[in-house]
Amino acid sequence: MDRELNLNRAETFSFINPWIRYFLFFFSFLFWVFSLLIIAIGVYAKVQKATDTVRDTFLIDPAIILIGVGVVMFFITFCGCIGALRENIRLLKTFSLSLTLVFLTQLAIAVLGFFYSDQTRDALGKFVKKAIVHYRDDLDLQNLMDYIQSKRHKITQNGETMPAKPTYNTT
């Protein structure tokens, strides 16, 4: 009788709290589905354009960026989802390490962007100039640039905000 009771305890024993386990599984699964949606939108946008991306515009192509972000997000959330569901410690450690690396990378980019603000501004300026050169070549890029331009505001001398004028030829 005691042996059977000990076996049942061993079968129900878990290193992970069930509330945390299912909470992690739910949100990992939710973001996993979102990552699949992001990949699908990126692939759909790339197929609809039906143009080859040249090397110059490869990194500024919104469809390629969506696919890349979706694939990274898919990998990370897959590790969290399956790791929580199966209580696989290795996948949970991979999930934790991946989230930590993403956070530290974002933090490092923010700190470097702050300390090297002049170089960051120059690099962003080159990126925008390259995007402006290819403005009419890619409809997605054109829509992205229009959206960014519509959200950018200049602050006047008296503190009011007014929309910035486009820096590219709209005629």
TrEMBL record:
Q: Which UniProt keywords apply?
A: Membrane, Transmembrane, Transmembrane helix
Under the heading Pfam families, the entry gives:
Tetraspanin
InterPro entries assigned: Tetraspanin/Peripherin
Superkingdom of the source? Answer: Eukaryota
This protein's GO cellular component annotations are: plasma membrane
Residues passing through the membrane, by range: 20-44, 64-85, 97-116
Localization, UniProt: Membrane
How would you describe this protein's topology in the membrane? Multi-pass membrane protein
Q: What is its main location?
A: membrane
Cited PANTHER family:
TETRASPANIN (PTHR19282)
Name of the protein this chain belongs to: Tetraspanin
Specify the taxonomic lineage: Eukaryota, Metazoa, Chordata, Craniata, Vertebrata
